[in-house]
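INFO worker-7 received task bundle
INFO bundle size: 2
INFO processing item 0
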Amino acid sequence: NSGNIPFGETLGGSGSLTINSGKGDVVFTGATGTPGAPTGVITIEAARDLTVNGAISASSFSATLSGTLLVNAALAVAGAGSLELVADQMSLDAPISSVSGAITLRPFTTGRGMSISDPSATGLVLSAAEVDRITTTGLVTFGGEATGAIELAGTANTTIGYDTRFLSGGGIRVNGNIGSAGFDMEWVTPAYRDWE
């Protein structure tokens, strides 16, 4: 299926939801689950763009997108559930959270780089404000083994308030001051580490 899939009404219940819209778009407008009564597993196997305009609370959530992720309402995962977001462009204007589960954000396209709190770089760009909207007591991973170079911390100081792993197949460059506020921070790349 390559058609658009809109969810305009409130979705509830504990059942799981799997979506494959091919090259179509997925839009959540109504609320999906609540913090006290999350839905089951939500999996978006394939889509172009995903827009979250209604708050989502699920037991776990994953989205694989060839286009853009727009988060305009809270996207939350209960308990130790995982949250994985894969897209070449992201706009995170609302909280992204898991209580204690792992959170992963990475580009869709193999070899595409990431920029975290470094607006001068290209690729999947996440601002310091967007990074601050992520919360979990678990591990947050930026990138993957197929991700290109990751650029960290431009001209402004950057502090990340959770355990973090930066994972890249194309190298990691730290361009400014980055801190962990007492949390663990790990750089993983099979290629090289480049510090400036």
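INFO item 0 finished
INFO processing item 1
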Amino acid sequence: TITVPSQSSRRLGNGDFSVGATMSSGLPVQYSVAGDETNCSITDRGLVKPLIAGTCTVRMNQNGLDANGADTEFAAITQSTVDITITDRVPGTPRVNQVTSSNGTLTITWYAPSNTGGTVTSYKIRTSTDNATWTEVEQTDPAVLSKAVTGLTNGTAYYIGVCANNATACSDYVQAAGTYVPFTVPATPTIDTATV
């Protein structure tokens, strides 16, 4: 029989790892992955290389041959499989491009991080009036590198920042320098009296 140690999830960028399966007969375990497997690759010694986030399915066999390919007294065994979850890395931080103010609104634009951690799925934007208590909104289209945050109070100064999000976590927030104040154009004044 094949004994397979419990497999924890593995994160992209943390290096290759060994499945560590053993045979009760002492014969070498033969490893493979499915021909259409894209999440990982594996060596004949069971060293797994994570490629993209997802489920890596490793196949384990023993055909009754020893390490030199010679017949033994042991019969071939039924194939075993183990599923290993490959997770994204946490993305790097984006860079703020600019923040513009308008009526009850701050619009922030940014540059995508060079390290996406695998796949950036969205961006989160947060605002605060005291740099301590934050309100968060999300830009769910990762291809759009801007977000208009509405419903803000004109004349109030806000801090604003953005982070890159994926299936693992959001990056550290990067905050725009200083504060920004939503505003509206004043109403047209009316003339009460005029003297010449």
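INFO item 1 finished
INFO post-check item 1: The first strand starts at residue 2 and ends at 3.
INFO post-check item 1: The radius of gyration is 28 Å.
INFO worker-7 idle
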